[in-house]
Automatic annotation (TrEMBL):
Belongs to the eukaryotic ATPase B chain family. This is ATP synthase subunit b. Coiled coil: none annotated. Keywords: CF(0), Hydrogen ion transport, Ion transport, Membrane, Mitochondrion, Mitochondrion inner membrane, Transport. F-type ATPases have 2 components, CF(1) - the catalytic core - and CF(0) - the membrane proton channel. CF(1) and CF(0) have multiple subunits. It comes from the Eukaryota. Subunit b, of the mitochondrial membrane ATP synthase complex (F(1)F(0) ATP synthase or Complex V) that produces ATP from ADP in the presence of a proton gradient across the membrane which is generated by electron transport complexes of the respiratory chain. ATP synthase complex consist of a soluble F(1) head domain - the catalytic core - and a membrane F(1) domain - the membrane proton channel. These two domains are linked by a central stalk rotating inside the F(1) region and a stationary peripheral stalk. GO terms for cellular component: mitochondrial inner membrane; proton-transporting ATP synthase complex. Pfam families: Mt_ATP-synt_B.
Length: 136
C-alpha cells in the first residue's frame, strides 16, 4: 500500500534532483557559451583597436607629408622670390648701364665734332637736298 506512494515520492525526489542537476548544467553551459561569445567580441574589439591604431599611424604619416609639402612649397616660393628679385635687379642694372653708355658715346661723339666739321656737314646736306630737288 505504501509502495506506490513511496515510489511516487522517491520518483518525485529523483526527478527534482535530476531537474536541479540539469538546470545547473544548463546554466553552466549557457554561462560558458556567453563567455565564449564575450571572448569572441573581445577579440573582435582588439582587432578593431589594431585597425584603429594603424589608421591613426597612417593619419600621422599623412599629416607629416602635408607639413613637408607645405614647407617645401614655402621654400620654393622664397627661392623663386629671391631669384625673381635678382633677375629684375640684373635687368635694371643692364638698362642703367646701357643708358649711361649711350649718353657717354653721344657726348663723346658731340665733343669730337668740331665747328668746322659741323659747318661742312650742313653744307653737304644742303647740296644733297638741292640735288634731289633738281631731279624731282
Amino acid at each position: 500500500k505504501f509502495g506506490k506512494q513511496l515510489a511516487e515520492a522517491l520518483d518525485k525526489n529523483v526527478d527534482q534532483i535530476e531537474e536541479d542537476f540539469k538546470a545547473g548544467r544548463k546554466f553552466q553551459i549557457e554561462s560558458l557559451l556567453q563567455s565564449v561569445k564575450d571572448e569572441e567580441e573581445s577579440q573582435w574589439r582588439a582587432d578593431g583597436q589594431f585597425m584603429l591604431l594603424e589608421a591613426k599611424r597612417e593619419n600621422v604619416k599623412m599629416q607629416l607629408e602635408a607639413i613637408y609639402r607645405e614647407r617645401s612649397m614655402q621654400a620654393y616660393n622664397e627661392v623663386k622670390k629671391r631669384l625673381d628679385y635678382q633677375v629684375e635687379k640684373q635687368r635694371i642694372d643692364n638698362m642703367i648701364s646701357q643708358k649711361h653708355m649711350v649718353q657717354w658715346i653721344v657726348s663723346n661723339v658731340l665733343k669730337s665734332i668740331s665747328d668746322k666739321q659741323e659747318q661742312e656737314n650742313i653744307k653737304k646736306c644742303l647740296s644733297d637736298l638741292q640735288a634731289l630737288a633738281a631731279k624731282a
